[in-house]
Amino acid sequence: MSVTSKRPRGARLDPRIVRTRAAVSAAGHALFLSRGYAGTTVEDIASHAGLTKRTVYNNFPDKEALFRQFIAEVTSYADAFAEGLAAEFTGMTAANLDTSLQGLGERLARGIVRKEVIAIRRLLIGEAREFPSLAREYFDRAPGQVLEGLAAGFRRLQRAGLLQPADARRAAAQFAYLVAGEPLDRAVLVGAIPDRRQILAIARAGVETFLARYGTARRASGFRLRQGC
Question: Are the folds of 15-69 and 75-226 the same?
Fold first, then answer.
């Protein structure tokens, strides 16, 4: 019978173990981004971290486990962003809808169009054949989770009469692409990330376009003007 030892609840890990694991993680992350998964070996990781190969294996069972942890850590920003969406949409009213969505769009754009996200997307595209399930997992946990949070928020705004009825999931995808899609595509394919001012300008214009399509007050006003009322 095998016995699995468990660390007592509240017990602290040896600081040396924490530092060693962090060193292995940092080395692996840096090499995965610069060389790709296939181009990185456990020997490379050990050398970059200034440790032995055996020490690497003492902290991670294999290279794939380290790679999967890397992807999980990158998605943590999306986890936090998605968790905060429900409260953010709850505070939206007719009086602050435009400014609230503008702020949301700007934060979403800044969160998406940043160095870490661009790097991981480029990496996953390169490793898609080797790790198709990992690419799907990243989509589900990062952009997919945020899109579901946006869709839930838009359904709430529709029920409150603040947005025109629509397919909320499709509206969420449109919102995300309008505020960040073009600079994200450019950064992933070309490697050039726009400056902060340009990112925010694109996000604001995207939200204006979204509201022109789905905002009830704007559409009603535009209809009256076209009818000469």
Answer: no
Instruction: Calculate the CA dihedral of residues 96, 98, 102, 104 and round it to 10 degrees.
Output: 60
Q: Give the integer Cα–Cα distance in Å for 123 and 74.
A: 12
Instruction: Record the pTM.
Output: 0.75
pLDDT given at position 222 = 42
* Superfamily name with CATH number, domain 15-69: Homeodomain-like (1.10.10.60)
Q: What is the three-class DSSP state of 96?
A: coil
**What length is written for the chain?**
229
User: Domain ranges in the chain?
Assistant: 15-69, 75-226
Q: Which fold has domain 75-226?
A: Tetracycline Repressor; domain 2 (1.10.357)
> Angle at Cα 228 formed by Cα 227 and Cα 229, nearest 5°?
95
Give residue 134's pLDDT. 79
Alpha-carbon gap, residue 215 to 171, rounded angstroms: 12
Per the DSSP assignment, residues forming a β-bridge with 117 are none
Planar angle of CA 121, 102, 91, nearest 5 degrees: 105
HSE of 120, CA atoms in CB hemisphere, 13 A: 24
For 190-208, the pLDDT digits (tens) are 888 889 999 999 999 999 9
Residue with tokens 């789905």: 214
The amino acid at 73: E
